[in-house]
Structures are given as C-alpha cells and as structure tokens.
C-alpha cells in the first residue's frame, strides 16, 4: 500500500513461491484472496490493478512497456481462449488453473 501511495509501480511475479504456487496465475489468485480478505488488504486493489501487477507494471519496470505488457497495436502478446470461456476479464482468471490455462511466451524483440 505504501509503495502504491508513493507512486511506485507494484509488480507481482513467481520467481519464488511463498504462497506455494509454482506459476504466475497461482500468485495472482493468492494476491486476489489476500486483497479481498478482511484481515488482509480489505479490497485495497481493484481487479484491474492486480492484473497490471503481472502485465504492464513488470514490462514498464524492465523498460519494455512499448513492446509487451499490454494488449494494443505494436505490442507482442500471446493470447488464446480458455476452454468454456468466450471472454477473459481479470476477475474470471482467478478461477483458472494451469491445466485449463494455456500460455505461450517468447522473449521480446
């Protein structure tokens, strides 16, 4: 909270697993649960802010925000539909698990 209030971009990654998850989607789900828990952050972050912590903010931190981290013209993105889903709002991604979520990645150009 203090970092956000100071104007620091908050990034969430899966380089280690204090939550026990082994991939980014698991970390995002734990962040959502802690964010919504009354003894946690009490809803301090919106779903969009949580999504930006794993997309736009890390890309900006690496200086790659003009190439990755956003779905827009000129940016690289690997997107695909989830089985049984016609759209992907960040709020629905929390219910996904690695067997139902497919992702491809490549280094930025």
Structure description:
There is one protein chain. The protein has helices at residues 2-5, 24-36, 47-52, 56-61, 90-93. It has one domain (2-100). The chain is globular and about 40 Å long. Helix content is 30%, strand content 0%. 11% of the residues are buried. The protein has five helices and no strands. By secondary structure, it is an all-alpha fold.
Which helices and strands appear, and what pairs or packs with what?
Layout: H1 2-5, H2 24-36, H3 47-52, H4 56-61, H5 90-93
Helicity level: 25-40%
Q: So what's the overall shape?
A: globular
Structural class: mainly alpha
The overall strand count is 0
Domain module tally: 1
Give a brief rundown of this model.
This protein has 109 residues and is mostly helical.
Features:
0% strand, mainly alpha, disordered C terminus, globular, 109 residues
């Amino acid at each position: 909270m203090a970092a956000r209030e100071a104007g620091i971009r908050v990034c969430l990654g899966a380089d280690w697993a204090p939550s026990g998850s082994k991939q980014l989607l698991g970390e995002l789900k734990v962040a959502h649960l802690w964010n919504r828990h009354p003894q946690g952050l009490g809803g301090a972050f919106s779903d969009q802010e949580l999504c930006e912590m794993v997309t736009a903010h890390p890309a900006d931190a690496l200086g790659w925000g003009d190439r990755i981290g956003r779905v827009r013209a000129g940016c690289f993105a690997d997107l695909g539909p989830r089985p049984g889903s016609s759209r992907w709002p960040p709020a629905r991604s929390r219910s996904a698990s690695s067997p139902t979520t497919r992702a491809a990645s490549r280094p930025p150009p």
